UniProtKB/TrEMBL annotation:
PROSITE patterns: HEXAPEP_TRANSFERASES (PS00101). Pfam families: Hexapep. The lineage of its organism: Bacteria, Bacillati, Actinomycetota, Actinomycetes, Geodermatophilales. This is Acetyltransferase-like isoleucine patch superfamily enzyme. It comes from the Bacteria.
Amino acid sequence: MTALTTGVQVGAGLRTDSGVRIGYAPARPTDGRLVVGEAARLRSGTVLYLGSRFGDRFETGHHVVVREECDVGDDVCIWSGTVIDYGCRIGNGVKIHANCYVAQFTEIGPDAFLAPGVTIANDLYPGSEESRNVMSGPVIGAGARLGVNVTVLPFVHIGAGALVGAGAVVARDLPEGCVAFGNPATVRGSVAGLVPVESRVRPVNGSASRYRFTEGRP
Ligand SMILES: CC(C)(COP(=O)(O)OP(=O)(O)OC[C@H]1O[C@@H](n2cnc3c(N)ncnc32)[C@H](O)[C@@H]1OP(=O)(O)O)[C@@H](O)C(=O)NCCC(=O)NCCS
């Protein structure tokens, strides 16, 4: 570890573009330290606040913000335009795609995947002081996968390995290994019971969209 600036420790092999800010001072009080592990790759527009810790091989796209008091594991990728608010815990191997918002006090288990546009809420009754006092994001279990534009409400637990379909609004807990979608998201099946994708599609030529559903979709 070497000291980059006051309070900022970085591991060997850091690669940054210009326009990266490592150690932005938050308005909220923190311990004033920021630790970034080995071999980080940070792209232009990334802002990492003082008071967080990142493991090894942390990687960002462009214009990624991670606020203070976050604990981020090894091999985490966060893609362009995503904001991680303060006080979150993100496990090893988590991938968070573009344009996501992860609210304060969210826990994301190892190897979970958030598709583009996932939005996480933490304040059940916005504008209420009582609600603010118990503000809490969800727990997203290890290896869970959330489809594009999924919204997750406060206090919810999504079980390990669950697959949440595109556009779902998760208002209540979901069990391990389920397939769930809809608003509100309900269990529709299991990951183990999914029809193999290769039996559902056929290739097409001459289009960037390389496959279509087969007729009489299984
Ligand atoms: C939910 C999902 C996994 C499919 O699960 P499945 O059990 O195979 O469901 P099926 O495709 O057999 O669809 C069953 C029914 O649910 C509907 N459905 C499928 N996905 C849905 C969704 N996300 N929201 C609402 N309805 C959906 C289908 O239209 C179908 O309705 P029908 O019976 O009236 O025709 C898939 O549709 C999905 O949303 N995947 C996530 C894609 C994504 O966001 N990827 C992120 C990386 S880019």
